[in-house]
Amino acid sequence: MSTNSFTLSTNEEANAFASKAFPSTLIAGPVWTSFEHFRKGGTAVLESIPEHGVATLRSKAGVFRILRDADFQSLVGVASDVSRLQTGLRFVVKAARVALKHPDKEHVELLIHSASMITEAPELPQRAGHESFQFTPDEPSEESSEDFDLNTADIPRPKW
């Protein structure tokens, strides 16, 4: 029985995924001690997060880590690959136990085949992310209603 029938190629979908490997370490990024400091900084604070950096936001609700989308997508790809390897290793361990209990040719071949499936499986792709959302010039006027007020200065802020 050929193991090629179990190997799925991701080459057809390579154009939708990034092929850049994820770095082995992340670096510490900026730290904000309150949501208000984070909010007041605007988009500039998000732009200050370096590539492969992890920013920290400490608030009353808890501690939050902020990543760039490309780094998040790479982490999702790595986590998926780890999960796939864990499942494969469990399968190999079970096949090894069966081969020890029944050391005939068929069960030993099952063990060899299960181990070779892990090594021949392609690396899972890592997504490049999505395009940023942009309004067309006509959309705000089409979607706005007369009773909706965008003046944020008049919105009362909570007092802590």
Describe the structure.
With 160 residues, the protein is of the alpha+beta class. Among the domains are: 26-67; 68-122. Helices cover 41% and strands 14% of the residues. The chain contains 5 helices and 5 strands; from the N terminus they run E-E-H-H-E-E-H-H-E-H.
Strand content: 5-15%
Secondary structure tally: strands: 5
Helix/strand-derived category reads alpha+beta
The strands making up the biggest β-sheet line up spatially as: 2-3-4
Determine Rg (CA atoms, Å).
25 Å
Work out the helix count. 5
Mean pLDDT: 75
User: Order of helices and strands, N to C?
Assistant: EEHHEEHHEH
Percent range of helical residues: 40-55%
Low-confidence stretches: 1-19
Q: Could you give the distance between the termini?
A: 68 Å
Give a quick account of the main beta sheet: strands, pairing sense, barrel closure: 3 strands, mixed
The dominant shape is elongated
Q: Which short descriptors sum up this protein?
A:
two-stranded antiparallel ribbon; elongated; 160 residues; 5 strands
Summarize this entry quickly.
This protein is an alpha+beta fold and 160 residues long.
SSE order and pairing:
Layout: E1 17-18, E2 27-32, H1 35-41, H2 43-47, E3 53-59, E4 62-66, H3 69-101, H4 105-120, E5 126-127, H5 139-143
Parallel strand pairs: 2-3
Antiparallel strand pairs: 1-5, 3-4
